[in-house]
Amino acid sequence: SPEKFQAPDGRIYEWQISNYRAQVGIFPIVLYIATFLQRPQGFFKAWNRKPSASLFAPPEGIRILDDIVVTFVYCES
Fold first, then answer.
1. What would the pLDDT profile of 30-62 be if each residue is shown by its tens digit?
2. Least packed by Cβ within 10 Å: which of 15, 49, 53, 67?
């Protein structure tokens, strides 16, 4: 489900969310500037002490990281 937002830099960004991965990039998407990975729930979850989710943002995504986090929370709610 695509969700678009305009960041303070004036560009339009779009979230693309599917299964255990959500990615955001400049619209139309040519390059992703952040990726959210959620670990799938599995049988061995009780023994897995690693974090359940991660947000990866290259240097290009750091300048709008606040917008990335806020819009991700909005999209997921």
1. 778 888 887 655 555 555 565 577 888 888 888
2. 49
Amino acid at site 19:
N
Query: What token pair was written down for 60?
Result: 């290009």
Are the beta carbons of 39 and 50 closer than 8 angstroms?
yes
- Residue 36 is given by DSSP the state E
Structure-block tokens of residue 23:
């990615």
The C-alpha atoms of residue 35 and residue 38 are separated, in whole angstroms, by 10
Q: Residue 67: its pLDDT value, please? A: 92
**pTM higher than the cut 0.85:** no
Cα distance from N-terminal residue to C-terminal residue, the chain: 13
